[in-house]
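pasting for the record
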Amino acid sequence: MKYIKYIAFTVIAFLTSCDADEFLNPLPDTVVVEESFFQTDADVEAGVLGIYDALQGVNENTETNIGNFNRGVQFEHLLTEHRTDNTRNATLEGSKSDFHRYVVDANNVESEDFYASMYEVIFRANNVLRFIDKADEDNRARYTAEAKFLRAYAYFKLVRLFSDVPLVTEVVGPTNNEALFTRIAEEQIYNQIVQDFQEAINVLDNTSKARASKAAAQGILSKVYLSQPSPDYSAAEQLCEAIINSNEFSLQNNFSDVFYNELNDEIIFAIQYQFGNTLESQSFSSEFTSFSRQGREDGQNIVNDNLVAAFNAFGGVRGPQSFINLGSSIEVIKYLPEGSDITVSPPTYGDNARNAGNDYIALRYADVLLMHVEATIGSGNSTTDIGALQSFQQVRDRAFPDTAPNAISSISKSELLVERRVELAFENQRWFDLLRFGVAAEVLSDHADEMGYVFSTRDLLLPIPAREINLSANLLTQNPGYN
């Protein structure tokens, strides 16, 4: 968030242990500090803002020691886009190149960091809930709803990437290994996620796009219902329709404005960053460059040829506004750092690309419209439902304005998957889409064969970090196929 660290700096100094092993709970001496800190409503709100701060993460350019700093969502493209047929790393060197080749192991530092980052979010949420009675009575429900929304958001990330994970909904002692390291079945994790989001929906409004809102909870819960082992298509459809019928959100006329006119009418929930501010910026935008070095490593999210082909066939205006062919490289341009100019040769990326301010878009209206179609199709293969057709057509008409209104009489599940691919490319959705549509193993096996990688069904989950297993004295078990 653009204002998070300024407001939350004091509380974060108290809440974050100096021991890098502590993610779910503070050390005992830190508990004393917490109890002395949480005294007023302002203290509790600072704690709430600190949860967003954990989600935002630390710019890798600011603190390069990956073992001591959580990157929040700034590594998410590695764990998602890079593991699909969308993108890859430019080199084969280093742990960041492991994802696109399906050779991630339990010692991968980026996977470990993401796991720890999500548990840092969960820890901070649980801690706020512990001291919620220190807040003014009029604000307690809202602070509680925000904390539970963010806890559910983090657990939703974890359960889809790692499956069964420890479920911790309160602060417990740092030596309570059973609570901290016992893996809980996916079904129970999803039950908690649903409960937290439902509570948020009942309390929150839509006054903010950079903090938890009712629509954000509705939209993400819709995706939860579509993702859980036994999907609830009807509940997902109703939530999407509630957002649509609220008339509070709309598509941007210009696709590029979605990404450069921040917090626009299409954005439902975004994690904000601020350009040039080392404490508030992000580094992933600079890492997506490859023509000339801007980031610390560069050349991440390099666009695969088959995605280029999909854009050429189905992308419409979205292709030229999503990536650019610079001859020696094909680069993502949804998140160009401030000051970039790709129309000149060679392209320029501004004076401070490593401290970029591009927001991380967690949920936008186009995603909701396409989820509405997905929920309407349900367990079938296609739909002719008029409401679903209208939702799909909104997205399609923006992509193909010269032929709008584009006649659509039915939508198949395979057509929807392609539409989601070109609409949401580089937004970390493709991996989860493939899983939800039940085609991940097939699509990724074919992709691996084409690229010369080796893919197996083991790769549908990431390994539980070895470091966490070691901390648990082997109470925490590993996912199948990993050592």
